[in-house]
Design a protein that fits this description.
- The chain is mainly alpha-helical.
- Among the domains are: 94 residues, 2-Layer Sandwich (GMP Synthetase, Chain A, domain 3); 36 residues, no CATH class.
- It has a 3-stranded mixed sheet.
- Strand 1 and strand 2 form a beta hairpin.
- It is elongated, with a radius of gyration of 31 Å.
């Protein structure tokens, strides 16, 4: 290590290396225990640069807060895919949204409101244009499940189902089959 520092200082004195050729400062390593919170900003910066930055997302907050930025209705229909800025600028960008085919028409009509919401999130005119790309429906959106009847089964339904499982010995299996039979009756009744 001493030789390396000596060589660097000698080369620097002689002017043998230009500013571009000079080696970068060495990273100071610590051999002790460090808090995760102290290193977290550097770790997340690297992770976002490698994943989101490579996809044209210098502003990761747009993805993570899309529902609050664009609104719940727009967020249900779309998701941001790419944010591209002109070279050397951070304004007048193009945001590409992925949405379903039918949703693209509705989002096209809502374009001025969406742009206004996005730019108010950034605090300046960061996005000048929206582009829509047809894609699969969002997998993160929970599909609405059928609302089941919350009414308890009638006495007749319970008696008919109990008669079907009467031959079985008492226990957990008989109780489970009774519940299953009542659930099947309820589902068949709702169809």
């Amino acid at each position: 290590m001493w030789r390396l520092k000596h060589i660097r200082s000698t080369c620097g004195k002689l002017g043998g290396m230009s500013e571009k050729e000079k080696p970068k400062e060495e990273i100071q390593r610590r051999n002790g225990v460090a808090r995760l919170s102290a290193n977290l900003p550097a770790l997340t910066k690297t992770a976002f640069r490698n994943t989101l930055g490579g996809r044209g997302f210098a502003e990761a907050g747009l993805i993570t807060e899309w529902a609050s930025v664009a609104g719940a209705d727009v967020a249900r229909m779309s998701r941001p895919v790419q944010l591209a800025f002109p070279r050397g600028e951070r304004k007048g960008g193009v945001l590409t949204l992925e949405c379903g085919g039918a949703a693209a028409l509705e989002l096209q009509h809502l374009k001025p409101q969406i742009l206004d919401r996005i730019n108010s999130h950034f605090g300046y005119a960061a996005v000048a244009e929206l582009r829509f790309r047809q894609g699969a429906a969002r997998s993160t959106i929970a599909k609405k499940s059928r609302i089941r009847d919350s009414k308890p089964p009638s006495a007749v339904e319970i008696a008919e189902t109990a008669a079907a499982v009467q031959a079985l010995p008492e226990g957990e299996i008989k109780a489970s089959l009774l519940r299953l039979g009542l659930a099947i009756r309820r589902d068949n009744k709702s169809k």
